[in-house]
Every structure is written in C-alpha cells, then in structure tokens.
Amino acid sequence: MDLDYLLDFEDYFPSMIARMGAEGFIGELCSGFRLLMDVNKGLITFESLKMNCYLLGLDVRDDELACMLMEGDLDGDGALNQMEFCILMFRLSPCLMDSPKMCSTQVRADHMLM
C-alpha cells in the first residue's frame, strides 16, 4: 500500500483516563459508539460509519471503512456492537496496551459495559 501522506498519531487515551477517571473515559467511549451507530440496529454498520464519516467531513474510502469494521468485528456479523467498539479502541491505543497499570482499567471497562 502506497501512502502519499504521513500522519502523526498521538495517543490521548492515557491522559483522558488520568483526567476523567476510568468511568468517565468509558462513558466517552460509549458516547462515541452512540455517535457512530445505526440507531435502528444499535450497531456500527458500514452504512452508519460511512454516513457519519461524511457528516464529520472525513473522506474515507469504502475499503478503509470495511477494514475498520473487520478489525473490531469479533462475532463475525459485519458490524460493531458497543463491547466490540470499546475493545477495539483499547487495542488501538498503544499506550494503554503497553501499560501494565491499565489492565485494571480494562477489566473495569468490560464490567461496566455488561
């Protein structure tokens, strides 16, 4: 894959957790999920992700959207439920995944979503 631009990535999740606490952070993730989900299905679908990217002014190709969904789709239904979305967000945060002290935050996050 040939990229004609470079993106700098800064992981803000650890500072968000430090500022808001674990419960506040999980609440923000849940708000993000609700922003992107199809309100009728309660899932982030290809169509809802595409529409919301458009509404947010993001130019994302269909194959990129499909890859985003496949990356987090643990049950194989082609969409993301709230738990899959939150797990994906944790997995995509290099600082959270590298920090042993965040393991307790992940456990609490899983408990809060059940």
Helix/strand layout:
Blueprint: H1 13-36, H2 46-55, H3 62-72, H4 82-91, H5 94-98, H6 103-113
InterPro entries: EF-hand-dom_pair, EF_Hand_1_Ca_BS, EF_hand_dom, KIC/PBP1/KRP1
GO molecular function, one term: calcium ion binding
Protein name: EF-hand domain-containing protein
Give descriptors for this structure:
single chain, 114 residues, mainly alpha, 6 helices, disordered C terminus, KIC/PBP1/KRP1, EF_hand_dom
Task: Please characterize this protein's 3D structure.
GO terms for molecular function: calcium ion binding. Keywords: Calcium. This is EF-hand domain-containing protein. It contains 6 helices and no strands. Helix 1 packs antiparallel against helix 4 and helix 4 runs antiparallel to helix 6. The protein is globular and about 35 Å long.
Low-confidence stretches: 102-114
N-to-C CA distance: 38 Å
Strand content: under 5%
Largest sheet: none
Structural class by helix and strand composition: mainly alpha
| Total count of helical runs of at least 4 residues | 6
From the alpha-carbon coordinates, what is the Rg to the nearest angstrom?
Answer: 15 Å
Q: N-to-C SSE series?
A: HHHHHH
Mean pLDDT: 80
GO molecular function: calcium ion binding
Pfam family, one: EF-hand_8
Keywords: Calcium
InterPro entries: EF-hand-dom_pair, EF_Hand_1_Ca_BS, EF_hand_dom, KIC/PBP1/KRP1
In short:
This protein is mainly alpha-helical and 114 residues long. The chain contains 6 helices and no strands.
